[in-house]
Design goal:
The chain is an alpha/beta fold. It has 20 helices and 28 strands. A hairpin with a 2-residue loop joins strand 3 (149-156) and strand 4. The longest helix is centred in the last third of the chain and has 33 residues, at 709-741.
């Protein structure tokens, strides 16, 4: 056949530019000097500023995230006159030094050398923590908690000055970041008098990093902490991460996977962990470690790890003492036990309270905390048993132990009873503990929500969770308020999740927020630029859960992409729609998610949830779908809620549509509150979802030229991919339920693709048809693969009228090869590409299915379209179909 070898193929992205400014600024940010002198700060800041001016202003890698300190427009900076900064009181602790350094860095970056001549700030700035200054000052509007701050204009030694006062050192640092954020967002700071106190003491993040450098459910490159079984020699990124965290008021980070390797606690390893703690310390971030409960036996030489054994208790105590000698501000331990194959107290017939308390007693003298995860369940459930229910596990186990935990134990509860699904009810355990501290566990890393290849802004979901009243009072989420007024009066009977986790409802000593983040070595931390909005939103909500998702997104957009109102509106509109849009094409009416739950957790795979012990069942059959979790006829899970909520979920009539199939099994013809049948909702929501992403692409394209090309193109490329993958999801789920239910789509779309030509129906040379498993993950259940290393082709003739078309080629991009493709019309090449993405797939199917869209192709009836593919490695240039659409005028 004489297939060409595709000469001159372009692969990969364009050129990279080295930004001296960014690199230098980064280096400075990472290791604030232990002693900073004022003059050195000024010289450094000036130098940086001039270097910055000399580089291309719009080269943006995303590494600076929301701390870009981009120069504000000249009109906002006033005249270019240089004066000297006068700091009062700063710098008598590491964190205060960091605060001072950051303030200079930010002001210089945004306002230039004239920043204090800009009229925005007085000539003096005072940074001080409670009790540090003897100067006469007004009192803050309300008392400061340890991490709280007060920013106000005052007289210091007779002259105007801006005071940033913290409850403690961290409070000062958080106040500095808050001030810089306001300036970056163009807020008026001339008459600031504002107190902010965080909503909860615990505002932590978890990383699921393994010592070999991989990250469980991490989608942005290898670990910033570990490499090859060791702590990295260069911890630059760790310091930068701590700075990002501190800018949001996050005060702790657990650095290793909860599926913990006991090695972290070995005496020769701990000094290296201490280096990471050193990198955190200037930013007020405490380090903690996940521990394996069997450690006393596996690395301690004991013959047991029974938490009630005296030698085991002594081992943990000695280990804690050893750690605190190296890391005096060590945060504590996180524990996953008796879950997903991890050992735990059940090995000795003991309870989670026994296990948590032995650790807690070892840590208590040093002020350490145990985060004991409520994510404890049996993954060998009997799927044939209609009463079996994984959702019950956390409540069944931990509610019974309420009152048995030490005061420095926090029960860390995933926000839903299953596992970070696209939609779940709130975990009933939040209202099931009155005498134990709680923290909510959220997930920034998008394990079940598109793995940072799909744009999904999660803050609207978190708003719903945090604003959920466990006592059942239906209440609209509050409007954003800032500064947050602590202890705001609420309806007495309301038990909002945000108040329960903060310990306010039952006056617990501590509690709050943990999120699994999993940043990696990728330049921009989380791969998708929009994924950083989730980290930002998490931090802002942990600080102030009354903030709305939209407001937070607007803040993030201003800091990330600038203050152009069109950009702010477009970005936040896309973000605000994105969770519902994703839910629309991946997990309808409370089925949580229909992804491959025993594999990648990424593409569609409906039956992977059924008939196995993992307990994520939908119980779909030809007549109906859903888990009956009612008390009357089901697993009884609905009864774990407080009476009003339990009553709401007990009945089909009162369960909200979006959770219906989580709580009830209904026929496909059941009519929802929306007025649609369940099956028609399946079709409509999936078409809405896929169309929604197409709209995001269109909306995003209106921003070309309004933001830097790097990030514009990066997001565009990702959105176009997402649009293709949303179509894969749409078709898989619609086709599956069309076949299962036998009920057609009233609008005739499902299973009906008039513009599509299946690859297996084309004229094939070298290509062979293959069955795809599961069948719904390829159009028509089949695809073609090229088994000839020299290449193959698939050809067909255009059936439609002569016009300009958009041509979609759906192919399979595995991560075990880089096939090449090209498309020719009447022998003339119109496009070529390499399948070199890194999707979580080693075979053709829903994870690897990818779309190439070619715009503005002139076609006439009878024209020959030929796709040529050259396989590479294990990847066989798989093709699913070609679809052509006349382009709108
Ligand atoms: C770290 C889910 C994830 C696991 C994770 C677990 C957990 O099951 O798929 O990768 O393990 O949750 O939260 O412990």
């Amino acid at each position: 056949m004489g297939l060409p070898s595709f000469p001159n193929m372009e692969s990969g992205p364009g050129s990279t530019e080295f930004s001296l400014c960014a690199a230098t600024a980064r280096a400075r940010a990472v290791h604030p000097p232990r002693r900073v002198t004022l003059s050195s700060l000024c010289i450094l800041a000036l130098t940086l500023f001039h270097l910055c001016l000399g580089t291309r202003a719009n080269a943006e890698s995303g590494r600076e995230a929301w701390l870009r300190y981009a120069p504000l427009p000249q009109s906002e900076t006033g005249k270019n006159e240089h004066k000297k900064i006068d700091f009062i009181n700063a710098g008598d602790s590491l964190v205060l030094e960091t605060a001072q350094h950051e303030l200079v860095r930010g002001l210089r970056g945004m306002l230039g050398p004239s920043w204090f001549a800009s009229g925005k700030l007085p000539g003096k700035i005072m940074l001080s923590r409670n009790g540090q200054s003897r100067m006469q000052m007004h009192r803050p509007l309300s008392p400061l908690s340890e991490d709280g701050f007060w920013i106000s204009h005052q007289k210091c030694q007779g002259t105007d000055c801006l005071v940033i006062k913290g409850g403690g050192d961290r409070g000062v640092l958080y106040g500095v970041f808050a001030l810089l954020s306001k300036i970056a967002r163009g807020e008026d700071i001339s008459a600031l008098n504002e107190v902010q106190n965080p909503a909860a003491k615990i505002r932590w993040v978890d990383q699921w990093d393994n010592l070999d450098g991989s990250i469980e459910r991490g989608y942005a490159g290898p670990s910033i902490f570990f490499e090859g079984g060791k702590v990295r020699a260069d911890l630059t990124r760790v310091s930068e991460y701590a700075r990002l965290l501190a800018s949001l008021g996050i005060n702790g980070c657990n650095i290793n996977n909860v599926n913990a390797n006991p090695r972290v606690l070995q005496s020769d390893f701990l000094p290296h962990i201490a280096r990471a703690a050193d990198a955190f310390r200037p930013w007020g971030v405490r380090l903690s470690l996940s521990v394996d409960l069997s450690s006393p036996k596996t690395i301690g030489g004991l013959d047991t790890f029974d938490p009630l054994d005296a030698n085991v208790a002594a081992w943990w105590k000695a280990k804690a003492d050893e750690i605190y000698k190296l890391i005096p501000d060590f945060g504590g331990f996180t524990v996953k036990a008796d879950s997903e194959g991890r050992v735990g107290p059940s090995s000795y017939g003991r309870t989670p309270a026994d296990a948590a308390n032995v650790l807690a007693r070892a840590l208590a003298p040093h002020g350490g905390i145990v985060f004991y995860r409520a994510f404890v369940y049996d993954h060998h459930l009997d799927w044939r048993d209609p009463r079996a229910d994984r959702a019950r596990a956390a409540y069944d186990i931990f509610h019974a132990l309420d009152g048995k935990f030490e005061d420095n134990v926090i029960i860390q509860i995933k926000h839903g009873p299953i596992d970070f699904q696209a939609r779940e009810p709130v975990s009933p355990l939040f209202s099931g503990l009155r005498k134990a501290n709680e923290a909510i566990e959220l997930q920034v890393t998008q394990e079940y929500t598109g793995q940072q290849r799909h744009l999904v802004y999660l803050a609207p979901m978190w708003n719903e969770v945090l604003d959920f009243d466990m006592n059942g009072t239906e209440q609209k989420p509050k409007m954003a308020t800032e500064p947050q007024s602590e202890g705001k009066k609420q309806v007495d009977s309301s038990w909002f999740v945000k108040d329960l986790v903060a310990g306010r409802v039952f006056r617990r000593p501590t509690g709050g927020y943990v999120a699994v983040v999993n940043v990696g070595m990728d330049e921009n931390w989380l791969a998708h630029p929009f994924a950083m909005a989730n980290l930002y939103a998490y931090g802002r909500l942990a600080w102030n859960p009354n903030l709305t998702a939209r407001r937070i997104n607007q803040e993030w957009t201003r800091l990330t992409f600038g203050n152009d109102p069109v950009v702010v509106k477009t970005v936040s509109d896309i973000a605000m729609k994105s969770w519902r849009t994703y839910e629309n094409y991946t997990g309808f009416l409370g089925t949580q998610t229909l992804t491959d739950i025993i594999g990648s957790h990424y593409g569609p795979n409906i039956e992977s949830s059924e008939e196995n012990g993992w307990g994520q069942w939908h119980r779909a059959d030809r007549d109906g779908i859903g888990m009956d979790r009612s008390v009357a006829t089901g697993t009884g899970f609905a009864g774990h809620y407080r009476p009003d909520v339990a009553k709401r979920y007990e009945s089909v009539a009162t369960t909200p549509d979006e959770l219906l199939l989580f709580f009830h099994h209904v026929p496909y013809t059941h009519v929802l509150h929306s007025g649609k049948t369940v099956i028609q909702h399946v079709y409509d929501s999936h078409y809405d979802g896929a169309n929604g992403i197409a709209e995001f692409v269109r909306d995003w394209k209106t921003l070309q030229g309004k933001i830097d090309d790097e990030r514009y193109n990066d997001v565009l490329r990702r959105l176009e991919y997402q649009e293709g993958h949303a179509t894969v999801w749409r078709d898989a789920i619609c086709n599956y339920f069309l076949r299962l239910s036998g009920i057609p789509d009233a609008r005739g779309r499902a299973g009906n693709f008039p513009n599509r030509v299946e690859a297996e129906n084309m004229e094939l040379r070298g290509y062979v048809p293959v069955e795809v498993t599961p069948w719904e993950n390829a159009s028509g259940g089949k695809a073609i693969e090229c088994r000839d290393g020299k290449g193959c082709s698939a050809t067909y003739r255009v059936p439609g009228i002569a016009t300009t078309y958009e041509v979609d080629v759906v192919y399979f991009d595995q991560n075990n090869g880089e096939s090449r493709f090209r498309i020719l019309v009447n022998g003339r090449k119109v496009d070529e590409w390499v399948a070199d993405d890194h999707l979580p797939a080693q075979k053709i199917g829903g994870d690897s299915s990818t779309r190439r869209r070619i715009y503005r192709v002139e076609l006439s009836r009878g024209d020959e379209i030929r796709i040529e593919g050259i396989p590479e490695g294990e990847e066989r240039a798989g093709l699913d179909y070609v679809e052509i659409f006349p382009e709108p005028e």
